[in-house]
Automatic annotation (TrEMBL):
Classification via Pfam families: UbiA
Family as reported in the entry's similarity comment: Belongs to the UbiA prenyltransferase family. Protoheme IX farnesyltransferase subfamily.
Membrane topology, as annotated: Multi-pass membrane protein
Primary residence: membrane
GO BP field: heme O biosynthetic process
Enzyme Commission number: 2.5.1.141
Lineage of the organism: Bacteria, Bacillati, Actinomycetota, Actinomycetes, Micrococcales
PANTHER family listed in its UniProt record: 4-HYDROXYBENZOATE SOLANESYLTRANSFERASE (PTHR43448:SF7), PROTOHEME IX FARNESYLTRANSFERASE, MITOCHONDRIAL (PTHR43448)
This protein's name: Protoheme IX farnesyltransferase
Gene: ctaB
Pathway it works in: Porphyrin-containing compound metabolism; heme O biosynthesis; heme O from protoheme: step 1/1
Catalytic reactions on record: heme b + (2E,6E)-farnesyl diphosphate + H2O = Fe(II)-heme o + diphosphate
Length: 316
């Protein structure tokens, strides 16, 4: 055996030893296409809504079936979003390492994967939950892929406002999974998330405004003054808290949710007011603290929906 042949055999053995890691990397790349961290936040809103709709514990199977279907639907929409925005992702530091721009997954493979799991999600929900939930999931996919990604994101600074409708759909899906229909309580929960989305996302867009500007995406913090952005954040926060409180008179919730809605709403409102005051003083960067509001918005939504989940089981 020559030295070259020996090296070839040794390299082949090493490559073979890396095969399991390569398979793992491929799997993780496809999982990354679904944006699991965003889906995690969406599912946090689905299960408490199901508890409220059922007035207690729905069946474990119904929860599992709804969660899996919801994950597939959101994952399919997110994958198609990454496919359509691969040119933007390649230009932004925050997103250039995503599976498609990094070359881990080809655009064609991502497109096929996104369409496939979107179809599977509709069939899964329709056959194992109900067809109302399936129709709502299909609507969410179309809203996110067509309405937000294809029509709004590159054309208007209000893209996240109206595109955020897709992110509100899990509460309707969760409610309909239990009841087979949609009630006013579910609509108000929908509005909570609808009005929550701008003060949640715009601080993130403020932090990465240079990236968005370089990619040609007209996020509001890129094209409008910080004063204008802060004013709109205050308006949406007020409407969000009002929507959360409007659920209480319907009689579907008790004191646990009421206390959480008032307390968390007041706390997050203070964060946004403080942010607006910093804008007025001309602060920028870390001194402005946009990520404090971003992370605070996640805490607010988590507290509100955890209280919503606990509420049916606590009585005075």
């Amino acid at each position: 055996m020559t030295a070259t042949q020996g090296a070839s055999v040794r390299n082949s053995g090493r490559d073979g030893g890396r095969t399991p890691q390569s398979v793992r990397s491929v799997v993780l790349s496809y999982v990354a296409l679904t944006k699991p961290r965003i889906i995690e936040l969406l599912l946090i809103t689905t299960i408490p809504t199901m508890f409220l709709a059922a007035g207690g514990f729905p069946s474990l199977w119904l929860i599992l079936a709804t969660m899996v279907g919801g994950y597939l639907a959101a994952g399919g929409a997110n994958t198609l979003n990454m496919y359509l925005e691969r040119d933007i992702d390649a230009k932004m530091k925050r997103t250039r390492n995503r599976p498609i721009p990094s070359g881990a997954v080809s655009p064609r493979a991502a497109l096929i994967f996104g369409i496939t799991i979107s179809i599977v999600s509709a069939l899964w929900l329709g056959l194992l939950v109900n067809w109302v939930s399936a129709a709502l999931a299909v609507g969410a996919i179309l809203l996110y892929v067509v309405f937000y990604t294809m029509l709004l994101k590159r054309r208007t600074s209000q893209n996240i406002v109206w595109g955020g409708v897709a992110g509100c759909m899990p509460v309707l899906i969760g409610w309909s999974a239990v009841t087979g229909t949609v009630s006013w309580t579910a609509v108000l929960l929908f509005l909570v998330i609808f009005f929550w989305t701008p003060p949640h996302y715009w601080p993130l867009a403020e932090k990465f405004s240079t990236d968005y500007a370089a990619a040609g995406v007209p996020m509001l913090p890129v094209v409008a003054s910080r004063t204008n952005v802060a004013r709109q954040m205050l308006m949406h926060t007020a409407l969000m808290v009002a929507s959360s409180l409007a659920i209480i008179p319907l009689g579907a919730t008790g004191w646990v949710y009421g206390v959480a809605a008032v307390g968390a709403g007041l706390w997050f409102g203070i964060l946004v007011v403080r942010y607006a005051l910093r804008v007025r003083r001309g602060l920028t960067g870390k001194a402005l603290g946009p990520m404090t509001v971003f992370h605070g918005s996640i805490t607010y939504l988590t507290v509100l929906f955890v209280a919503l989940a606990i509420d049916p089981f606590v009585t005075l």
